[in-house]
Write a structure and sequence with these properties.
The structure holds 2 protein chains of 2 kinds. Chain A is mainly alpha-helical. Chain A contains 16 helices and 2 strands. Chain A has a single domain, classed as MetI-like fold (Orthogonal Bundle), CATH 1.10.3720.10. The radius of gyration of chain A is 26 Å and the shape is globular. Chain B has a domain of 168 residues: MetI-like (MetI-like fold), CATH 1.10.3720. Chain B is globular and about 75 Å long. The chains are: A mainly alpha, B mainly alpha. The interface between A and B is large, with 118 and 118 residues.
């Protein structure tokens, strides 16, 4: 049959002075990326452009009655960094991002390491449950946790009372900012750990067995093997998942919004995304909302730069 | 099984130096080591149960009568299992329009994403052209951008063109948000099909189009399916953009519908049984599809660090 023919003819084709591909090079790729670029420009480029323009405009009462927006220069940006409300939201978001990210990566690393030393069937069981949690849609996850932390019939309060914390009977978790963020962190950690644990476990399986065996024969203790051999080898994966966590835990609008429905004091529990929503949709202050949005976008780009760089390195090989 | 398993271990360094295989004995499995292994396994089991519990609780509550959920002591095993909660949801008028809306938006997004992402992936993996690097860079950064960073501007864009509460408006934003990652995901698949294969078919007499449909496309199917499932999951689960782009209750997608459904019942005490049944309905297709693409998504996200 002709199984041997294709590679041969391909080779011949590549020897020809003017291959087909070469001639087509100038236009074909641009035609191909043209379509996705148009979609990106329409769906993101144009809104982004409008947003930049809007961020230099003021929207007050007059504009709500149809007057044209007026130019206010950098006022909106100044407000982001000077009004107490905006500053509180900014710091709260950064703190929440840092705490949840380190919790997720810490717990995820713990579970990944644990998966290496447990019995095979426990490992499979762990992987299945992690996948289940990971697959559950945000809306369903948050809704379940609202049910778990329900003040009246929630399992968590029931369990705490059983454990001897009598004061927790009928405790309304969503009513104070601190306990609100405790629940929010629990939800986000529950949803975030599976990805980290699975990625790190995948990274750990890349550590060659011969190296570990050699270290063991040379008399290294388990602790030494962990810190001197395993950790340095998984460091690249570890830093990537940490960066991704920073980026993802900065955008937790949906989770916070859905938890706020449980009766939380909105102004004291807003994170950046929710603050933008409140400014833009609630107060119709489009200029302020645009300025905060751009700060968020800029922050995201700064945090993702190292991630993108490492991915690009992987591409060029 | 014996506790001591003698094994031949070839130390690569020694073997290289001496040219001889080195025989060693694997470390003995002492009773103490076995005990630690069981302790770790027990810990692993507890962690697994903690992670599984919310999902278990969601499904269990979905099959429990609400009156049962309101008793002071929770019931951890299904004793009064019932379909009543699901029936109530199906009979409630607002579920079906929301399902239709979700299917319409997800369908449009899915087709658009596959088409545009495929074109993009073809360009960056088959051609080296001026601007390729910038395009990849832009794609990678765009996939990181949070929906919250643009949604007010997107809302205003729709509002000024009368596109609020319409399928097309949201679908455009979904498509734009999802194609960057899918281009990145498909790129590997396209690169995996050598262009020579297609060229060879052309030398053998097929036209470029036919060579593409006969040779390249079938080989790309796994990648297209994985990307399609990914796009489906994103569009199906999306909440943030939907919240601003579909403000009318009549235009609710399923996630928005669940929220409306829950807040509507807050005043008279949430009917958690029905809410959990609704959550289960939304989650089940997602969980099933997710298991298909999980591997691809992970490797796509950390491909720079984990080399397969």
């Amino acid at each position: 049959m002709s199984t041997a023919a294709p590679p041969l003819t391909a080779l011949e084709a590549s020897r020809q002075p003017q291959p087909i591909r070469k001639r087509r090079r100038p236009i074909a790729p641009y035609l191909l990326i043209g379509a996705p670029i148009v979609v990106l420009l329409l769906g993101m480029g144009y809104p982004l452009f409008r947003q930049i323009v809007t961020s230099f405009q003021g929207f007050g009462l007059a504009q709500q009655f149809g007057a044209d927006a007026e130019w206010v220069g950098l006022d909106n940006y100044v407000n982001v960094f000077t009004t107490p409300e905006a500053l509180a939201v900014l710091w709260r978001s950064l703190a929440f991002m840092l705490v949840t990210s380190f919790l997720i990566v810490g717990i995820g690393l713990g579970i990944a390491l644990l998966m290496r030393v447990v019995h095979g069937w426990v490992k499979v069981f762990l992987q299945v449950t992690l996948l289940l949690a990971w697959a559950t849609p945000v809306i369903a996850s948050v809704t379940v946790f609202r049910w778990l932390f329900d003040w009246n019939n929630g399992v968590v309060n029931w369990l705490l009372v059983r454990l001897g914390f009598d004061g927790m009977a009928g405790f309304a978790w969503f009513s104070t900012p601190f306990t609100f963020f405790v629940v929010a962190a629990v939800v986000i950690v529950w949803m975030g750990v599976p990805f980290v644990a699975m990625s790190l476990f995948a990274g750990l399986t890349q550590v060659p067995d011969e190296i570990l065996e050699a270290a063991r024969i040379d008399g290294a203790s388990s602790t030494q093997i962990l810190w001197r051999i395993i950790m340095p080898l998984v460091k690249p994966v570890l830093s990537i998942v940490l960066l991704l966590q920073f980026i993802w835990n900065l955008r937790v609008f949906a989770q916070i919004r859905l938890l706020q429905d449980g009766g939380a004091p909105v102004t004291d529990t807003n994170l950046l995304g929710n603050f933008i929503f409140q400014l833009g949709i609630g107060r119709q202050d489009f200029g302020g909302a645009a300025a905060v949005s751009l700060v968020v976008l800029l922050l995201t780009i700064v945090i993702s730069a190292p991630y993108v760089r490492s991915i690009m390195k992987g591409d060029s090989k | 099984m014996s506790a001591v398993t003698p094994d031949i271990i070839v130390d690569p360094n020694v073997a290289k130096a001496t040219g001889l295989p080195v025989v060693r004995e694997r470390a003995k499995i002492t009773p103490r080591k076995r005990a630690t292994k069981w302790a770790f396994s027990l810990l692993g089991l507890i962690v697994a149960l903690i992670w599984a519990f919310p999902v278990y609780w969601m499904v269990l509550s979905a099959f429990t009568p609400n009156a049962q959920l309101r008793t002071t002591t929770p019931q951890f095993l299904p004793v009064h299992a019932t379909w009543r909660n699901f029936e109530a949801i199906f009979q409630e008028g607002s579920f079906w329009p929301a399902l239709r809306m979700s299917l319409a938006i997800t369908g449009v997004t899915l087709v658009a994403v596959l088409l545009f992402a495929f074109l993009g992936a073809l360009a960056i993996s088959r051609f080296r052209f001026k601007g390729r690097k910038s395009f990849i860079l832009a794609v990678l950064f765009i996939q990181m951008l949070p929906a919250e960073g643009l949604f007010i501007a997107q809302y205003r864009m729709l509002a000024s063109t009368g596109m609020l509460n319409r399928v097309w408006g949201v679908s455009l934003f979904y498509t734009a948000a999802i194609i960057p990652f899918t281009i990145w995901m498909l790129r590997g698949f396209v690169a995996g099909v050598p262009a020579e294969l297609e060229e060879a078919a052309m030398v053998d007499g097929l036209s470029r189009t036919r060579a593409f449909f006969k040779i390249t496309l079938p080989l790309l199917m796994p990648g297209l399916i994985a990307s399609g499932v990914f796009a489906f999951l994103q569009a199906w689960n999306e909440f943030t953009i939907a919240l601003v782009a579909l403000p009318a209750n009549s235009a609710n997608t399923l996630p928005l519908w669940l929220r409306t459904f829950m807040t509507a019942s807050v005043a008279r005490g949430v009917d958690w049984a029905q809410v959990m049944a609704a959550s289960t309905l939304i989650a089940i297709p997602v969980i099933i599809f997710f298991l298909f693409v999980q591997g691809r998504m992970t490797s796509g996200l950390v491909s720079g660090a984990v080399k397969g």
